[in-house]
Please model this.
Amino acid sequence: MIYKILLALWMALIIVASFFYSEAAGGFPGETSRILFFHVPQAWIATLSFLLSMIGSAIYLKKRTVDADHFALSAAELGFLFCVLATVTGSIFAKATWGSFWNWDPRETSIVILLMIYGAYFALRSALADPDKKRLFSAAYSILAFATVPFLVFVVPRITTSLHPEDTMNPASPGMDPRTLKVFLGSLLAYTTLFVWMLRLKIRLLRVEDKRDREDL
Amino acid sequence: MKRGRSITQTESSTYLNEALAIWVRDLRSEFRTRYAVNAIIMFAVTTLVAVSFSIGSFRIADDEKSFLYAVLLWIILVFSALSGLSRSFVKEQEAGTIDTLKLSARPQAVFLGKLFFNLTLLASLELIIVPVFVLLMRYPIAHPVPFVANVVIAGLGLGAGTTIVAAMIAQASTRGALFSALSFPLLLPLMIMAIKGCEQASVRLGPVGWAEVRMAFAYLVIMVIVSLFLFPLIWEE
Model:
């Protein structure tokens, strides 16, 4: 309980700090660079949960424990949510800086493919009636989809050059303002903690649903 | 009466022998019904006629042709393939022969046999559609060898990426739509490479598309290896 209150206070602090403490980065129209504090952690969570879902699937294929499948499904559902959020915020930023909501920038292409993989994963799950088959096939599909990711990383950037901001907005580069960096890392921490909390909640929910289904039978 | 090639598992039978036996058996049953090949080729011809009729061979400027025609060609090929390739496993499910097949051959051999069959279907699709497309649309191809290599290798990748998905959706309730929905995200990188490769092969200047052939080949190898690992898990369920 105390963690949730701390998290709520921390998130409130980050939201305030992202608008009042840090300064808007140069080279971007108006205040648009502040999207960094929300969009980048969302994209990070979307990628992280895709990876976690794949790991959960691999564990399920190896050990066939229901818990591993719950983990994979929860990570996939949360990943889909954060992927949609990252797509929407990114699209708004694209309109503000590049002048169009969508122009198939490499980043936009790869996030759409990620969304389609998640969508296909859920479609496969809903199409299979038998629970064991559902778990096994969706785990196999998850691994299969993950095998194509390296091609996206190599292939997509080759097509067109990206307009996605890298240097001034990348925390690893020395060009970032120290205040911005502080708020950004704080936001990353807040999003990751929120994600872990939501993930545990989702896994517990699935476990309860599973138990209810078994008692019904 | 002569017996067909037996697919029973013996001491001496190798994976390749079993796979070839399944391939021959599938080809024979396909020659009798012609279900998959009719569906795929009629779908492709219909799309090709629609594209050719509505665009014609003069509407697109010559310098735009190499890119736009590569896109149109690959949209026709990918979606025609998606319309029929799931038959390879769905027909076993519908005919009730799937359990016999499980008993009579090892899973990897079943996968390879079905993969060979799907690749045969894709080869006949490409053999008919690509020349007709090039002639109907007056596709100017500057470097025919890398162009053909792109079409062939990406076609093989198309088969490798979809065969295991066909095995999965054969046991699901909504088969047709699900097959396209599951396959498309897996095929998208391949499709992007193939379009890029065909575009480069048809332009006189610049790289001719061998890099894309190599990438498509890597995709093919990875998908076959991952499928060989995953297929036994799906098949024996």
User: Anything to note?
Assistant: Chain B is about 80% helix and 0% strand. Chain B touches chain A at residues 161, 164-165, 168-169, 171-174, 178, 181-182, 184-186, 188-190, 192-193, 196, 215, 218-219, 222-223, 226-227, 230, 233-234, 237 (CB under 8 Å).
